[in-house]
Write a structure and sequence with these properties.
Elements (H helix, E strand, L loop, with lengths): L6 E3 L18 H12 L8 E2 L6 H4 L5 H11 L7 H5 L12 H20 L5 E4 L20 H12 L4 E5 L6 H6 L6 E8 L23 E6 L5 H19 L3 E5 L17 H18 L4 E4 L10 H14 L9 H7 L24 H20 L7
Parallel strand pairs: 1-2, 1-3, 3-8, 4-5, 4-7, 5-6, 7-8
Bound molecules: zinc ion.
């Protein structure tokens, strides 16, 4: 299949989603990625789509109006102290800030703009790196996420088209918000591969979380071991993704592309390198091509090494979406020269990581074995009828 060019959602005002200088969630990474792609001459002005602002009724496709009202009041510093716990706003993870409702509505609007452009056929794939806020709950902010743009977009697709949606989440953290929102919906299948919740936020994402009522069998979780490396991550991801897709037969896929499974990421304990960020989008694209006539909405997500990891990882997502192949070789020196002064760490010179990026993991074999048993257990129910791809 020939790949059409992709669309890229971008605006400087994504930077307004800002919890403050000391907070790990930093939208500077979207700007760094955009600038890197510009220097690669990999995105043209015609491909840039300015995001719209989501309306209150669109946000209410998923969120409780009382919660939306609380976010608006927090935007004006009018949220009462005792509401902090109820709505999850004003916490250490998700502090309140001026105009947070508007900033969060624009991230949602970006994802809805992406959906619109895919569904009206302008592009097979549209990428919104400002989105992917998978932890947001119906009436509670969580894990840096105010509004759950991914869930809103899926509900929007369900409302306007009778499409079956496969949501694939490769962030290092469990995609809990999206999972619980569609837990009993048989037309939305969620697949999350993440570091086990034993030591990591949000603690959920167990293999036995398989859905509820009519939605039973459309929720899949792969809680891989801490210190999992590239080969085991990719083996696990590929087997699960292909089998789940073949089982569910989606009409469109929505991917959350958090870039925090990298060994340099400060908030997780996985040991992956740029290798996975070259392969993850290729596998997603092959599923979109096989089942969805290419229809693929790709979102950002976590990612806390904003200098060395995220710009490269997200550029590779774009490279695959836009022309089917990841970048190779050197990072443009223009980009390094422009941003090195601002960066507290040495910026990478190449697209791939160096071989000796981290010390060998002593439990490698054991981890690989555990992950592979996990996949077998997870897929057992859908493989009972069919011996497929294992
Ligand atoms: Zn994450």
């Amino acid at each position: 299949m020939t790949h059409l060019q992709a669309g890229f959602i971008y605006t400087d005002t994504f930077q307004n989603y800002n919890f403050g200088e000391q907070h790990p969630f930093n939208q500077k990474r979207v700007e760094l990625t955009y600038e890197l792609l510009k220097d690669m001459k990999a995105v043209s002005d015609e491909q840039i789509i300015t995001p719209r602002i989501a309306t209150d009724s669109e946000i209410a496709l998923v969120h409780d109006p009382k919660y939306i009202d609380a976010v608006k009041r927090a935007s004006r510093n009018e949220l009462k102290e005792e509401e902090t716990i109820e709505f999850g706003i004003g916490t250490e993870d998700t502090p309140a800030f001026q105009d947070m409702h508007l900033a969060a509505s624009q991230l949602v609007g970006g994802t809805l703009s992406a959906v619109d452009h895919v569904l009206n056929g302008s592009y097979n794939t549209v990428v919104n790196l400002g989105g992917g806020l998978h932890h947001g709950f119906r009436r509670k902010a969580s894990g840096f996420c105010i509004y759950n743009d991914a869930a809103i977009a899926i509900q929007y697709i369900r409302k306007h088209y009778d499409y079956k949606v496969l949501y694939v989440d490769t962030d290092a953290h469990h995609g809990d918000g999206v999972q619980w929102i569609f837990y009993d919906d048989p037309n939305v299948c969620t697949l999350s591969i993440h570091e086990t919740g034993r030591y990591l936020f949000p603690g959920t994402g167990n293999i036995n979380e398989r859905g509820h009522n009519d939605g039973y069998g459309t929720s899949f979780n792969v809680p891989i071991d801490a210190f999992t490396e590239d080969e085991s991550f990719l083996d696990t991801y590929q087997k699960t993704l292909f089998n789940v897709a073949e089982h569910f037969i989606p009409d469109i896929i929505v991917t959350q592309n958090g870039a925090d499974a990298h060994v340099l990421d400060p908030l997780s304990h996985l040991a992956c390198t740029m290798k996975i960020y070259e392969e993850i989008p290729k596998l997603a694209q092959s599923v979109a091509d096989t089942y969805c006539q290419g229809k693929w909405v790709a979102l950002g997500g976590g990612g806390y090494d904003i200098w060395r990891v995220v710009p490269r990882a997200w550029s590779q997502l774009w490279a695959v979406a836009n022309h089917g192949e990841p970048f190779k070789g050197n990072i443009p020196t223009s980009w390094i020269e422009r941003f090195q002064q601002e960066s507290p760490v040495t910026l990478p010179a190449t697209w791939h990581d160096q071989e000796n990026l981290y010390k060998p993991i002593p439990r490698k074999e054991e981890i690989t074995e555990k992950n592979s048993i996990l996949v077998q257990k997870l897929l057992q129910p859908i493989l009972n009828d069919r011996n497929y791809m294992m």
